Amino acid sequence: MLQIKPNCECCDIDLEPDSTQAMICSFECTFCASCVKQILDNVCPNCGGGFVARPIRPHNEWRTGVSLTQRPPSSERVHTPYSEQELRAFAAKVRHIEPAQR
Q1: Which Pfam families did the record assign (predicted)?
Q2: Left (φ > 0), alpha (ψ -120 to 50) or beta: where does 89 sit?
Q3: CA 12, 17, 22, 26: dihedral to nearest 10 degrees?
Q4: What are the extents of the domains in the chain?
């Protein structure tokens, strides 16, 4: 089950559970769409993979026990240990390679 982290690991902007600006990699590293595009060039600085839009967990409990209320998002904020310069340098190494080929 997705953790649904509450913030962008780069700029620390809040990313509500229903945010359409939240992007994740296959390891659930979470960044906002702006940082993914402008700083990371669609390269996860942790694993080197690409990003997709984070799914939105339903607010309504359409099936028993399966909803945002029953399965709340994480409240633990995560921050990248890398500077913006380090993020850009890492992305520059592999951004020319399609995510499926990294």
Answers
A1: DUF1272
A2: alpha
A3: 110
A4: 22-101
